[in-house]
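In response to reviewer comment 3 from the previous cycle, which asked for concrete evidence that the modeling workflow produces usable outputs, we include below a single protein chain processed end to end. The sequence was submitted unchanged, and the resulting structure tokens are shown without manual editing.
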Amino acid sequence: MMRKSVLSLMLFLHIIPLSMAQESLSEMDVEKKSDMRDQSVVETSMDSFHTYNVLHYRLDLLFPFENRSFSGRVNAVCLSEQDSLDHVVFHMVELTADSVFVNGRSADFVQQSGEIRISWGPFIESDDSFDVSICYHGAPQNGGFYFYSMCAYTYGEPVETRYWFPCKDVPWDKATVELHVTVPLGVEVASIGLLEGREIDLDGLWETFHWRTDYPVASYLVCVTMSDQYACWSDWYVTPEGDSIELVYYVFARDSAIAKKDFIHMVDAISFFSERFGAYPFEKYGMAEVEPFVMGGMEHQTMSTINSRWIRGTRLYENGLVHELAHMWWGDAVTLNDWTAIWLNEGFATYSEVLFSESQYGQDSFQDKMANSKQLYLDQIRRSDFPLYDPPADQLFNSGIVYNKGSWILHMLRTVVGEEHFWPILSDYFDTYCYGNASVPDFQSICETVSEMDLDWFFNQWIYQKGYIQAEYGWASRLLESGEYAFVLSVSQVQKEAPVFRMPLDVHIEGEKSSHDTTVWIDQSSHHFMFTLDFEPSNVVLDPDGWVLMDAEYVQDSFYRSSEIPEKFALFQNFPNPFNEMTVIYYDLPNSRQSWEIDLTVYDLRGRRVRVLLEEKEGFGRYWTVWDGTDDLGNVLPTGIYFIELSTEGFSERMKAVVVR
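The workflow returned the following structure tokens.
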């Protein structure tokens, strides 16, 4: 009886064309640049993918739930993007088309190179809509649909949707979707959107589930997940306006009790993200457990697929669950325009999970997770490194760079633009591109508009180039006649095969009973910074709160140009120069005698001595002193050019110093 029912339903799907009106349509067409799985799929007919836009998919699917075999019919409501359109191309891999109809009439088609090319007449003009219906069957072996003893499911990212239904399998073409999924009675089906109905056939052996979403969705975010072992229950998020959004869970009955412990904070997470980013953008949220699964989770729109390994009853993988939820904002509502910009999905979701951890568990949890994220990135680049934008095809989901460095980009952006701009940037970005697609320049434009800052430098160095900051630093202090301390900090960027970065850098200076915090900007390979302190410093910490993707090593001798014992006299250029309040002067005395009588003096342009800085005996070594821009009487010298002269027996050298008032 079951075999007869299967044959009847398959025959029904294969022979009847479908033409129907649609209630909700959406249009989005952004240029596609790359494809991860098979470049030949992209190169053959990409022009054909820009000649039309899919507005709505209806899928009628039959899954016998016995193996990988299934059959289906897709009806695509399309909009012509050009005059005299006479053919379209859909992605279609490891599936066999049985019949094709355009506007209810049989159409010619050819399958090759992972595509189906459909031709007809008469022409369809620009801005006219038309229906394409494809009846097909298949048992894909290399992606798209997966069948196991516990469950069966579809998976689409980045280009596997074409393995389970013919479609325009690109992220920049969003469409509304409805699915009529028929399975043996007793099998539960989870999918995107809302469950509008379920109907048992007359012989009581089959059940059809009708899922529908009127929100546009990219093809890779459509899914069908099914099992005859699911237990189902719901939770509810109540919006500030009093509306209720269902959170529905499909979990194997064996795991249902412990899953409730793992899912306990999901309502808190959706509330937090709604407050920070913008109101939850869809009609529901759900999670469906599968086993086995090559990923930890997958953010299918409103119905994330979750690996059973994440369900432990201990919230061990709560970060992963929250990550997939965050994708409803970053990836599903606001979708990357093409796969070169994958960090807009994964970096955003990774940082979102850390933000939620901070709200739920406190600042220490936030710091620990950012430190761990940094370590994962550093572990990765010891093996290989590449820019965040347009990663190699086989590294599209690289955890260290795409996910973790991606999250650090947002973290550093936050400190560059400030708290007062960072949160409005995220909410404006979400509002502007919700239900559409965005590129990296789109995001940069939002950042610059909100912050009123030119951020080319930030995006160029962190997004389009590889690497991070590797710094060496040193410091020294000297007691002044005023009782204050002159403090000098040197910072050098020593990274190789990476740009010299420009970033603000927090500095924490500690003393026995006091401390001082300041921020400096680095944008060169070497810097010297000077401060006046009212206490003697004993320790210095760069970036104490962890805002910069950086490794900093303290090197005592880095304050000087060299750690070697001097072999000759040298007077080095003072820094800063020009200066206003104070400048540092350092010099070398060679190791050729035990001591030297030295004179360090400042002269004006007329050659008049205005300040004696040093007249004393010193041994060999490297020395430094400071000049506060005053004369011997303590008078503040005016703006001008002065000369600093170091002299001793048989040696004299001058350097020009500029005072600016």
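Confidence is low (pLDDT under 50) at residues 1-46. We consider this sufficient to address the reviewer's concern, and the full set will be provided in the supplementary archive.
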